[in-house]
Amino acid sequence: MGIEVWFNSNWQWIIALAAIAVPIVVAWGQKKQVTETIKGQTKQLHGSMLLRVFDTLSTNESRTERGKLKKFYCAHKENPNYDDNTDIRETADHVVLTFDKVCVLAIGGYLDTEEFEEIYGEMIVKFWKALKSDIKNNQSENRKGYARYFNELGKKLSEDSRYKETDLCFDSDNSDSSV
Predict the structure, then answer these.
(1) Which of 143, 152, 59, 49 is nearest to 98 (CA)?
(2) Which of 24, 49, 57, 137 has an alpha carbon within 20 to 30 A of 93's alpha carbon?
(3) 7 domain-assigned
(4) Percent helix, strand and coil across the chain, each rounded to 5?
(5) CA distance 103 to 135
(6) pLDDT in the model for residue 20
(7) How far apart are CA 56 and CA 100, in angstroms?
(8) Predicted pLDDT at 49
(9) Residue 94 backbone dihedrals phi, psi, to 5 degrees
(10) What burial letters (b/e) apply to 159-172, b meaning 16+ CB within 10 Å?
């Protein structure tokens, strides 16, 4: 009898609590579902962007320009002056700007950083080391934004112990993988 009396006098409170509790429980379940959806979409975005990076770095033009830059750098390693002639200046700019486009995606969080660094980290460091003095010169000539992202990521990765000894002119497996 005590429960009936209590229920009769408090039925409005019970309905009010249920009206509050049910949406909270439903929202919690939806939050978990939304979180999983966001994780899936993020993974899909990272995969899509990694394919775009691959497409960008795999074009014949990009590979040819990196090959020309590597050949020039290795022949002039002690003092590589990319302003020696128009062709090599254009080649250096092409390589720098291509890597800058790719690095902006990595720094902006549009790529899975670990996967990106595993695949392209060594290549980025090799070319960054070959071009860092040229980048610095261009940035000091009122072009502060020149190669900003390539410079930032190249500097960061070059401090990683995996890439300390990398050199554009020496491939550990004697292949042309850096191009």
Answers:
(1) 59
(2) 49
(3) no
(4) 75, 0, 20
(5) 15
(6) 74
(7) 11
(8) 86
(9) -60, -50
(10) eeeebeebebeebe
**How many distinct structural domains can be found in the chain?**
1
Structure confidence by residue, pLDDT tens digits, 51-86: 999 999 999 999 999 999 999 999 998 889 998 888
Exposure class string for 61-70: b at 16+ Cβ within 10 A, else e: ebeebbebbb
Amino acid at position 52, single letter: R
Mean pLDDT of the chain: 84
Q: What is the span of the domain harbouring residue 75?
A: 17-163
Q: Tell me the C-alpha distance between 37 and 43, whole Å.
A: 10
Closest CA to 103 of 41, 44, 178, 156: 156
Q: Per residue in 113-150, pLDDT tens?
A: 899 999 999 999 999 999 999 999 888 877 888 999 99
- Please count the CA atoms within 13 angstroms of the CA of 56 that sit on its side-chain side: 19
In the structure, what pLDDT confidence band is assigned to residue 5 with cuts at 50, 70 and 90? low
